[in-house]
Every structure is written in structure tokens, then in C-alpha cells.
Amino acid sequence: MSVADWISAVFLLSGSLLALAAGIGMLRFPDLWTRMHAGTKPQVLGLLLVLAGVAVQLAPDAGAVVALLFVGLFQLVTAPVASHLLARAGHRSGVVPRDHLVQDDLRVFELECAAGEHPRPSGSPASAPADEPAARPAES
Amino acid sequence: MDVVTDVALGVLLVSALLVVVRLVRGPTTLDRAAAADVFVAILLCGVAVLVARRGSTVFVPVLLALSLLGFASSVAVVRFLSHGDPSNERKAP
């Protein structure tokens, strides 16, 4: 095995072990947020490590390396968005036990919105977000 | 190098099976959505290891498509669920 093979092997194996850690965490952790915490490892760092290992293997082929770079970039951009939506849906639907939280800024923000502390700017449409039934105006 | 990719594929297979167990068990639909998200990520890792094993770039476009498809499906499922699914009202054990 050449030096590039050794580097690639280290990257591939560490990425796979992060995926294994995510699998064990998904199975063992008690609620949605802790499971997401475990599941984020292969989504970002694990995938980037594996892609780095593959890129070392395919290094002479510049086109393939650029394609792998784009895969990593897409995952880096999209994984936080999906995780944010998932965590917020968990918060709103009450799946996760909120009383374990040390600080719950989203709840504080909802209470402030209900108290009318954050009026909508006049230019935006007046409809409440459709996925928040509690905030829907009474006349609808 | 074949031994390394074999070991990596085996580890990825075991972790995918663990995630599938959560996907089947998951007390709420949101847990299943999170598990499906992680499953797509592990699938991406698996296809990438396959590319390294074969040394051919045939599967690289598959990686791109899977990455975007995983994001779109996860966002769609979560947007759909946040409209109030009765099965989300149960508490996780």
C-alpha cells in the first residue's frame, strides 16, 4: 500500500466508525433531540471524511474530485436546514420533554409572540404561519 | 486496500442496520424522520466507499442525486408532519 492508500484508509475507516457511533446513538439515546445529536455525526463529519478518503483515491481525476467536493458542499449546506426543521417540529409537537431543558428560547419567543411583542412588519402578509395552530388568528 | 473497504462497508452495514431498528421502532414519526435522514447519510457513505473500492467514477453522480434527494425528502416529511399528526402527541418512553 502506498502513502495515499494509507491516508485514504484512515479517512474511510474513521468516517465509517462515526457512522457506527451514530447507529449506536440512534438506538440508545432516549429522545428525539439526543438522537439527532448522535445522527449528525455521519451527516456532516463522517461523510466529509469518507469523501476525503475517496478523493485521495481518485486524485488524478480532477472532475470526480470536484463532484465529490460538491457533494460535501451540498451536505454541509442542507444538513443544518433539515435538522433545524426537525428539531423545531419536535419542539412544537411536544415530542421531546421540554422540562429537561436548561434554556428554552423558542418557548420564550412563542410566549412573546402571543403577547404581541413582535408585531409583523406591515409589508408582509398578515397570515400566521400555517404550522402553528395556536398562533392562528381567531377570525380564520 | 480491498480489506480496508471491506471493513468500512461492514461497519457501515452494521450502523445502517442499527438505524433501521430505530426506523422500525421509533415511537414517533419524527424519530422515524430523523432515522431516515441518518440512513440516507450512511447510504451516501456506503456509495462513496464503493466508488473508492471500484476506482471508477460511475457512481459519483449517484452521490450528488442522493444528497439532494435526502434533503428534499426530509424537508418534505417534516413540513408535512408539523401540521399536526396525532401520532406525534405520544410521549417518547
Description:
The complex is a heterodimer of chains A (140) and B (93). By secondary structure, chain A is mainly α. Chain A has one domain (3-118). Chain A contains four helices and no strands. In chain A, α1 packs antiparallel against α2 (32-57) and α2 runs antiparallel to α3 (62-93). With 93 residues, chain B is mainly α. Chain B has one domain (2-82). The chains are: A mainly alpha (140), B mainly alpha (93). At the A-B interface, α1, α2 and α3 of A face α1, α2 and α3 of B.
| Percentage of residues in strands of chain A | under 5%
Overall radius of gyration of chain A: 21 Å
Roughly what is the average pLDDT of chain A, rounded to an integer? Answer: 83
Major protein interface: A-B, 61 and 57 residues
As for the number of domains of chain A, it is 1
* H/E topology pattern of chain A: HHHH
Summarize the structure.
With 140 residues, chain A is mostly helical.
Main attributes?
A: 140 residues; mainly alpha; 4 helices; B: 93 residues; 3 helices; 77% helix; flat; disordered C terminus; transmembrane helix (chain A); transmembrane (chain A); sodium:proton antiporter activity (chain A); Multisubunit sodium/proton antiporter MrpG subunit (chain A); membrane (chain A)
What order do the helices and strands come in, and which of them pair?
The complex is a heterodimer of chains A (140) and B (93).
Chain A: H1 3-28, H2 32-57, H3 62-93, H4 105-114
Helix pairs in contact in A: 1-2, 2-3
Chain B: H1 2-25, H2 29-54, H3 60-81
Helix pairs in contact in B: 1-2, 2-3
